[in-house]
């Protein structure tokens, strides 16, 4: 059964690429109003999970359900990617920034709202030129863009080409662009990659405020200071399988996670567990 607080439920997900089982029987839940982090060593399968959730890949097996506040439920593995954004209200950013670098910062945020505007036009030229509904929606789109420019601290750069922004500001613009689609779940692939400590701090504040206003977040992140600082829940993948799931504190002290990050062989895990337990014992004594 799915709890009322669950926004995303991934069940028995598997993804095979030829002979490689990149994800193998992986299950987890993300709660509404929380920041859930998906972590794991390089090549563990994190981006593959994201690509399955957001419709870039069709999983080999498994079920991915999205539960909206309204009670509506969507089986994401059955939807094309544009429906995942438009109907299920899942937005994402990418590991490599994908902005329209020749368009201005503001234009990037307006393009993100193109679907809503076209719907308001009735998909006709007359609708675009004369419909009061279209005019109202166009005004709303500009207001939404201005709101997220403020929130992402980009309002002063609104008319600059997106490609001219420093790296950290481009990352914030990607998040602002995703937020302009009004998502219930925001998926961020390594949002802190390449940020300096000041930019990282600004990102943490932005992500926390997005969560506090009711959008749930799922993020892949290598920067443990970000993960441990802002996550409510952490899920750890290794070789396509879940090895730990719990609060940041639980995961941080889980011997299996420590072993995975230290690159220890399976046979040595018991040794590491014993070492961690003796350290824990020592700390408690
Ligand atoms: N399209 C693809 N075709 C073939 N193999 C793939 C494809 N996408 C991912 N893989 C493989 O699946 C495995 C998991 O890759 P994935 O990119 O999901 O890992 P990751 O945890 O996101 O890694 P990183 O932290 O380095 O970004 C890797 O062995 C990768 O080479």
TrEMBL record:
Single GO MF annotation: ATP hydrolysis activity
InterPro entries the UniProt entry points to: AAA+_ATPase, ABC_AA/LPS_Transport, ABC_transporter-like_ATP-bd, BCA_ABC_TP_C, P-loop_NTPase
Any Pfam family hit: ABC_tran
GO BP: D-alanine transmembrane transport; L-alanine transport; L-isoleucine import across plasma membrane; L-valine import across plasma membrane
SMART domains noted in UniProt: AAA (SM00382)
Leader sequence residues: none
Coiled-coil segments on the chain, per record: none
Domain (ABC transporter) ranges: 8-264
Keyword ATP-binding tagged: yes
Keywords on record: Amino-acid transport, ATP-binding, Nucleotide-binding, Transport
CDD domains linked: ABC_Mj1267_LivG_branched (cd03219)
Transmembrane segments: none
A cellular component term, taken from the record's GO annotations: plasma membrane
Family: Belongs to the ABC transporter superfamily.
Name of the protein in question: Branched-chain amino acid transport system ATP-binding protein
Originating species: Allorhizobium borbori
Lineage, highest ranks first: Bacteria, Pseudomonadati, Pseudomonadota, Alphaproteobacteria, Hyphomicrobiales
